[in-house]
Inverse folding.
DNA sequence: AACTACTCCTGGAGGC
DNA sequence: TGCCTCCAGGAGTAGT
């Protein structure tokens, strides 16, 4: 599930709750999620203090005081829960990522793959029902080997995401269909299936259109909508989807996961079809194929 | 360059 | 109730 807004929202919360805390225990319950870079493991995290949290595309980077970094990719169904220390009383769990299993399930459970215990008694749990999540433990200067710029395109929230840079990247793949192009992390980094559908709907552009078919106004609209939908999710809450359906009443998503329901702009029934194997939602009236 | 298929996994939903 | 099939928000690789 987790796309840029979900990972960034999680990063912001973890920055508050983990920074300056020391890791006193680390347990990896599912070894296969740890990716091999050198011989480092989660045991190397013990004794280190969390120096800060960064994000690149959908990767979460936990920088530690001992020169190592823990890099996490939540994949399709990764979830993080931080259980506050018992003494904290009313403090709620911090939760992020895929909402299944329910965040309030007792932890750990059989889908829990990593447990980090901090020196204030709080516990960080990484859960993933599908085991597609990935972890790396690498020296901080080598984080780039996990998240290389040649595989990860322009960062949407960064200063380099300008209209000019976006258009340059569209021009490079002018005959590709927009949906797979926007999903390709090496073009624009951070979008996933939900936010691509939302951006294209916002701009009134059909996912099977190509960059070459867009006029000036459409290119600008698409650029603006990508920023707008990401900002909306960061400010007002991320898209709420459970079992591939939009949660009724949530402000996002507006179109993804809403097959047959009325388009919020024109009222036409939203349609679903497949593009490159991915479930894709469009308003057949607002998003003309042209 | 662009597209498809297949892979890693497991759980939930819907059809019968 | 059970069994079957399909589907799922990511991303890498291989083949056409």
């Amino acid at each position: 599930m987790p796309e840029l807004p979900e990972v960034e929202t999680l990063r912001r919360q973890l920055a508050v709750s983990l920074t300056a805390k020391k890791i006193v225990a680390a347990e990896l319950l599912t070894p296969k999620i740890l990716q091999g870079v050198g011989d480092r493991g989660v045991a190397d995290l013990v004794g280190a203090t969390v120096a800060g949290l960064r994000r690149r595309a959908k990767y979460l980077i936990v920088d530690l005081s001992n020169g190592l970094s823990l890099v996490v990719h939540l994949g399709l169904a990764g979830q993080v829960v931080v259980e506050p220390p018992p003494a904290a009383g009313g403090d709620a769990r911090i939760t992020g990522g895929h909402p299944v299993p329910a965040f309030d399930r007792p932890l750990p459970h059989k889908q829990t793959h990593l447990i980090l215990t901090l020196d204030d008694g709080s516990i960080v749990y990484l859960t993933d029902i599908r085991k597609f999540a990935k972890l790396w433990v690498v020296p901080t200067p080598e984080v780039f080997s996990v998240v290389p710029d040649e595989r990860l395109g322009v960062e949407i929230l960064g200063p380099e995401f300008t209209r000019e840079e976006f258009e340059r990247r569209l021009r490079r793949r002018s005959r590709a269909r927009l949906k797979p192009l926007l999903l390709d992390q090496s073009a624009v980094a951070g979008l996933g299936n939900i936010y691509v559908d939302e951006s294209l709907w916002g701009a009134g552009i059909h996912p099977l259109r190509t960059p070459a078919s867009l006029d000036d106004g459409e290119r600008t609209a698409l650029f603006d909508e990508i920023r707008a939908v990401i900002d909306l999710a960061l400010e007002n809450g991320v898209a709420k989807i459970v079992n591939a359906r939009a949660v009724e009443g949530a402000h996002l998503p507006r179109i993804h996961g809403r097959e047959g329901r009325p388009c919020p702009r024109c009222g036409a029934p939203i349609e679903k079809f497949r593009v490159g194997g991915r479930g894709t939602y469009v308003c057949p009236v607002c998003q003309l194929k042209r």
